[in-house]
What we know:
Number of domains: 1
Shape: globular
Amino acid sequence: MSLLPEKLFDLSGRVAIVTGASRGIGATISDTLAQSGAKVIGVARSDQPDEVPADGVEYFSCDINNHSAFRNICKKVFEIEKRLDILVNNAGIFLPIKREADRLKSFSGMLESNLTAAYACSIAAADHMIKAGNGGSIINITSIGGVVGFAGMPGYAASKGGLGHLSVGMAMDLGNHNIRINNIAPGYIITDMNRNTLTEDVSGRNRRLARLMLKRHGETWEVAAAALFLASDAGSYLTGDTLHVDGGWSMQGMTYP
């Protein structure tokens, strides 16, 4: 069986939840899934989204560390829509270490928000995917920081690296329900929040570009396009996998003059 391109990426009739959806990558993913036909519920801590969502996106304020609150959102969505097809775990934090005494607190905080909360969201959504019997797609937004590591951010690297491996374990557990679990590992992606940081520090920008195979930073729509692929029938035979949307950063080997 083959499908026309417009059918491969058509999400009509499907229901998605995207965390961290108030701005940046999460907001763009929400809009992209909605524009492809899905009913999208965007979730974030903010009372209101920072970016105006597209038609088809409904926004809920919820801190994903409040596991019972997120489970209630899944329950309400399922009661209304009678299905839940897609979960994108995009919400995450980076806690800089401002004092040596803060090291353990920072480490624990990132594990709680970036790994434990993502697992709690995944099992809450998967329970309803199983009830509906339609299969599903869970997409975890990790980071190249969880693949290659960076100095000064052990908690972030551990949490995102753990999230990547969590996807593999859950993919094995849920494959018999036709629920696919995959990762997207973004590299340096320009958002409104980091635009000045990535562009104004000329020296840092040049060092990053020297390592990037494509010699540019990424855009949020490029991460959203990967999410659409994994959420749709186009990615129906992928599970336990990672798409590195990083301009080649994590694949760069030794270079010689």
